[in-house]
Amino acid sequence: MTIAWQSPTHRTAPFDAVARAYDARFTSSLIGRAQRESVWLEMDHLFRPGQRVLEINCGTGVDALHLAARGIHVVACDASPEMVAVARRRVDVSPYRDHVDLRVLAIEQIGQIENEGLYDGVLSNFAGLNCVADLRCVARGLARLVKPGGRAILCLFGRFCVWEMFWYFLHGDVKKAFRRLRGKGVVANLVPGHSVFVRYPSVGSIRRDFAPHFRLVSRKGAGIAVPPSYLEPLAVRFARLFRFAAKIDPFLGRCPGIRALADHVVVVLERVEV
């Protein structure tokens, strides 16, 4: 997960502290790959070669290069200079480097690129928006950057992760088991001395916050049979079961009712003229 920096006035971003280890802990993990591929299914369906896409909270650049490999031009932004540095090293050795423009830019500063032209779509993957206090402000900013008819793919933490509830309840930690249900959010510790405040908006509240500039087109869950990333040891230990879980997860993610129990929710919004 990549969570956006909340306060652009600080000299360092919280995710600077975990940037170098992020790929090993999540991107290259069994769970990370499975959940990312679920989001890629949406990206590959909606974004087409030749389009120009804005990615916010781009992390280490994996999604940007995936899009670039399909002939899509990507402006990829993140509030963490260290995350962008890792992304830049990845992009520099890629044959698709000319399709990716990396920026150190927080979500709250996205208006700075308004004069660079409109985008065909926008991507925010793995919980970047869960650490933004005002999603309505984000919606207004993106509305000025996305063409009418353009799509926004937003992947956020879900509110009712069945794996998380079961796991922590089983281990007697009721507070963590139901932490996503707290309306005001929780403090998440990344490493000692670095934390972020995480909120868990419902799909309904996301729809309301992005209206009237965007309308909800679809939603799905990512991470129902596949557990959250902190359960990677289980995925490694029970590799055969995990492979089966990864195969059925995209199907479960589209089932009404069941999809609400996922680690992440993937919403697709369409830019509409107001």
Please identify the top-level CATH class.
Alpha Beta
Low-confidence stretches: 1-11
SS summary, helix count: 10
Residue-averaged pLDDT: 92
Round the Cα radius of gyration to an integer and report it. 18 Å
Q: What does it look like?
A:
Helices cover 35% and strands 23% of the residues. The chain has 274 residues and is of the alpha/beta class. The protein has one domain: Rossmann fold, CATH 3.40.50. The strands form 2 sheets. It has a 7-stranded mixed sheet, with helices on both faces. A two-stranded antiparallel sheet has the order 6-7. The chain is globular, with a radius of gyration of 18 Å. The protein starts with 18 loop residues before the first helix and ends with a strand. The N terminus is likely disordered.
What does this entry show, briefly?
Helices cover 35% and strands 23% of the residues. It is of the alpha/beta class and 274 residues long.
